[in-house]
Amino acid sequence: MHRLMVIGASGHARCVIDAARAGSTGEVVAVADDDVVPTAREVLGVPVVGGSDSVGEWWSEGRIDGVVVGIGDNDTRMVVVERLLAIEPSLRFSTVAHPTASIAASARLGDGAVVLAGASVGPQASVGAHALLGAQANLDHDTVLSEGASLGPGALIGGAARIGCASVVGIGAVVRHGLTIGNHSVLGAGAVLTRDLPDGVVAWGAPARIQRSREPGERYL
């Protein structure tokens, strides 16, 4: 049995735990979180064993077989990934997919990627390391969801599109076939994208329009 530790104790972490339990990923045996309140002893019945510094100990002692970072904010998730690798360079990141997700046989899922309930990943599509597909999100054929990027619940991405590193496509947003969103950009909830977006911008509306610039690490949730 693959023993999994989830990093994070928020709502998204609960979604990751639920997906892992429902599927064949293995058993979630521990949660680690640097910001958890002192009174929080468990998340969905899984014990909170400490902060991120506990990961190296659990890994070196052979008590876990993999880790997944259950943090919804893309930039924060990638910072935590870097921190964990600094603590333990040999750490293995597990991929979690809910059993109701539809993942084409030719699709590729990177280490630490999460695909939640009802999401779809089409033929020859690529989901980067630590990327996230929310519930009912659709990544069509030949599309790239880059490292650390995310699709909100119900987001629809047409074929042969590209979503850049750590970029966000919000809840229910639509991206037309063949378009590109640059790195560290945010497409707001319900937006309809009909033209490419560059790096480091925030856009919303139908059709979507660029509203302002955005720096990497700027909060959006």
UniProtKB/TrEMBL annotation:
UniProt-annotated site: Increases basicity of active site His, residues: D142
Residues that bind acetyl-CoA: I171
Keyword Amino-acid biosynthesis: no
Xref: PROSITE patterns: HEXAPEP_TRANSFERASES (PS00101)
Keywords: Repeat, Transferase
Repeat as UniProt keyword: yes
Membrane-crossing residue ranges in chain numbering: none
GO molecular function (one): transferase activity
Active site: H141
Residue span, PglD N-terminal domain: 3-84
Residue positions binding substrate: S10, G11, H12, G72
PANTHER family hit by this protein: ACETYLTRANSFERASE, UDP-N-ACETYLBACILLOSAMINE N-ACETYLTRANSFERASE
Stated name of the protein: Putative Transferase hexapeptide repeat protein
Annotated organism of origin: Candidatus Neomicrothrix parvicella RN1
